[in-house]
Write a structure and sequence with these properties.
The chain contains 9 helices and 4 strands, in the order ββααββααααααα. With about 200 residues, it is mostly helical. A two-stranded antiparallel sheet has the order 1-2. About 65% of the residues lie in helices and about 5% in strands. It has a domain of about 50 residues. β3 and β4 form a beta hairpin.
């Protein structure tokens, strides 16, 4: 039985049953920020809101600070959780996605691509770090600096190198490796003297 300050397990659990309890606890603890986000999103939509003159409904000032000590999370984390959960409601969330992964997607991907990125994370079993790197490359926010062809090329090369390292080249067949080597060799030879200086 789950209690506020602990877990009381019945006597006589089999190892398989004990493992299942652990899996459920893991799933629950991994979903805590989703739960708090949904909690605050509900409040904002249902009743605890006010309008600051811009027509947008918001939770009352201080509500996150009021709840922070009770949740174990700071106010900005709770506000962030609400934002993520409002952006991607429960029906759209994939079961196997973590809050950290969805936070990265919501923060960087265009709204129309959120489902695509969730599916990609699950299909490719991406870590948060790998997801962040790929999102930075493919979903860069607008910048006032011009994007130079050289910058784009370097980003593409870095994405290729990262993909190569992630796979440890173990999944790449020899024919493909030879093609890559043939394509890279002239560039390597041209840059060899510079590489020696590094």
């Amino acid at each position: 039985m789950l209690q506020r300050n602990g877990l009381e397990l019945p006597k006589g659990l089999t190892p398989e049953q004990w493992q299942e309890v652990g899996a459920q606890l893991s799933a629950m603890s991994g979903g805590v920020l989703f739960m708090w986000g949904d909690f605050f999103a509900y409040a904002e939509d249902a009743f605890k809101f006010h309008d600051r003159g811009d027509g947008k409904r918001r939770l009352a000032d201080g509500i996150y600070e009021e709840w922070a000590p009770r949740t174990g999370f700071d106010a900005p984390t709770l506000k962030d959780a609400k934002w993520v959960c409002q952006t991607v409601n429960l029906a759209r969330r994939r079961d196997n996605i973590t809050f950290s992964q969805l936070r990265e997607i919501v923060g960087r991907a265009p709204k129309g691509q959120i489902d695509f990125w969730q599916d990609k994370v699950i299909r490719e079993r991406m870590s948060v770090r790998a997801l962040r790197a790929e999102l930075k490359l493919t979903c860069a926010k607008h910048t006032d600096r011009p994007v130079l062809p050289a910058t784009t090329f370097i980003n593409d090369v870095q994405a290729f190198v990262d993909a190569y390292r992630r796979s440890s080249a173990g999944g790449w067949d020899q024919k493909f490796k030879r093609e890559v080597a043939k394509a890279i060799l002239p560039v390597y030879r041209d840059l060899e003297s510079i590489l020696r200086e590094l």
